[in-house]
């Protein structure tokens, strides 16, 4: 199985799946054997999708953009949002992405999250060229490898905290494990005792914690956070940043966060600055420069 990734279709649901030898190397193999996760049936039909052995090997970065361009519109109305971006992100990094409005940072995040595709250039995820995946395969990659946190909490208003967190697991057919996994995720973000409360009964800080629990309940490899503190005051923002840093350092989740705020970016280990569709500066922070509680 060397040099290959697999797209497996189980009786209970679809998922983008790697061979067990690479899964075990990724975050201690916590998600190895996903084929039997809650579906109750281990039967699968797998079509091999080849990737070059050089790219799919252990030396491949988690994420790599190569000369990525994104153009919106055509002719005289064309607008180049990204103008040839090269970026590598390794497993376990905490990266803040900064830049003025229109700098290209949100477009870059949309491409990393498989919510948009480049006009040209290549996006590689764990040694697989994402541009060669089908629409369904990209959806499966999003579902099982990526978690999303937005500035707007996007919670269902009449639904309890635990039911909101369960939602991603419904699409994964997690079965009887769904409720217990949602409770565990809420515990991870410090909301034990608030499981039955609706969003209207929670503060903004608590609602964002529910949104983060929903993002991590499927045990993603990457957490993409777009202005996660944008609707919070400074004290509550610090709490959310400490939570994201804990998920990065203790759970091994790679965090990529868009922010306008230098104070929030200071919690990351690396800051990538965008300007006019290009990376203007890419700086790694020394341990003493990273914000402490």
Structure commentary:
- The protein is of the alpha/beta class and 293 residues long.
- It has two domains: 4-56, no CATH class; 91-116 and 133-289, P-loop containing nucleotide triphosphate hydrolases (Rossmann fold, 3-Layer(aba) Sandwich), CATH 3.40.50.300.
- The chain is 29% helix and 28% strand.
- It has helices at residues 20-25, 53-56, 105-112, 135-145, 161-171, 178-188, 204-216, 234-251, 262-265; strands at 4-10, 14-17, 44-50, 63-72, 79-89, 94-99, 120-125, 128-129, 146-150, 222-226, 254-258, 270-275, 278-284.
- The strands form three sheets. The protein has a six-stranded mixed sheet, with helices on both faces. A four-stranded antiparallel sheet has the order 5-4-7-8, covered by helices on one side.
- Strand 7 and strand 8 (128-129) form a beta hairpin.
- The radius of gyration is 19 Å and the shape is globular.
């Amino acid at each position: 199985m060397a040099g290959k990734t697999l797209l497996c279709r189980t009786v209970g649901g679809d998922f983008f799946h790697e061979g067990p030898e690479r899964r075990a190397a990724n975050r201690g193999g916590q998600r190895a054997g996903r084929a039997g996760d809650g579906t109750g049936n281990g039967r699968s039909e797998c079509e091999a999708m080849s990737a070059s052995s050089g790219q799919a090997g252990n030396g491949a970065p988690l994420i790599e953009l190569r000369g990525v361009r994104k153009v919106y519109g055509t002719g005289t109305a064309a607008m180049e949002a990204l103008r040839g971006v090269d970026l590598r992100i390794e497993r376990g990094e905490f990266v803040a992405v900064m830049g003025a409005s229109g700098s290209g940072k949100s477009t870059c995040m949309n491409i990393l999250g498989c919510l948009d595709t480049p006009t040209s250039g290549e996006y590689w995820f764990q040694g697989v060229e994402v541009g060669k995946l089908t629409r369904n395969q990209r959806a499966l990659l999003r579902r099982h490898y990526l978690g999303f946190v937005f500035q707007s909490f996007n919670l269902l208003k009449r639904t309890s905290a635990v039911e909101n967190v369960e939602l991603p697991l419904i699409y994964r057919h997690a079965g009887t494990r769904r409720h217990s996994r949602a409770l565990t995720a809420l515990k991870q973000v410090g909301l034990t005792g608030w499981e039955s409360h609706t969003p209207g009964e929670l503060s903004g800080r608590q609602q964002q914690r529910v949104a983060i629990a929903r993002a991590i309940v499927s045990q993603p490899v990457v957490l993409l956070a777009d202005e996660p503190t944008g609707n919070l005051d400074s004290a509550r923002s610090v709490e959310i940043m400490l939570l994201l840093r804990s998920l990065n350092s203790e759970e091994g989740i790679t965090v990529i966060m868009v922010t306008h705020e230098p104070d929030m970016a200071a919690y990351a280990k690396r800051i990538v600055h965008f300007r006019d569709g290009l990376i203007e500066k890419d700086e790694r922070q020394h341990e003493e420069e990273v914000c402490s509680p």
